[in-house]
Every structure is written in C-alpha cells, then in structure tokens.
Write the structure tokens for this entry.
Amino acid sequence: MILTHDFFCSATFLLNSIILNLHSKRKLMFLFSLISIISYHSIQTLIIQLFQMIFTHFHKLPNKNKRSIQECSFAPYEILNT
C-alpha cells in the first residue's frame, strides 16, 4: 500500500482533532490501538507525527512564538518524493 501526501495530511489533521479532545488515558490507548491496526505499513511515521502533536498540544508556546504542526513535523513523505 502506497500512502500519499494527502493521506498523511488527512491523518495528521484527524489525529490532531482527536488529541485536542482527549480527556483520559483510556481514549489515548484506544487511539494507539486503532492506529496500529489501520496503518500497519506506516505505523512508524504516524507514531512520530502523533508524538509531535502531543508535544505541541501539551507544550504550547506563547502566542507570538506559536508554530504550526507543519513547521514542527519531520514530513518523511516529502523526503520520499524528492
């Protein structure tokens, strides 16, 4: 299965939305299980992005220094497309 740039953008947006609404460890564990089942071939990339989103969510920068998720991500799919 070849995953495209659009897939990663959609997955990043979806995971960010879910993480912003998480309130318990149980939901977080469910999310990890769901990711591992759905994206067997790209689990490493999605977990990296998931940790980045968690980091940016829980370690928010002041408004003047706030960075977007795209600026903070490794974007491995861009490396593959070069």
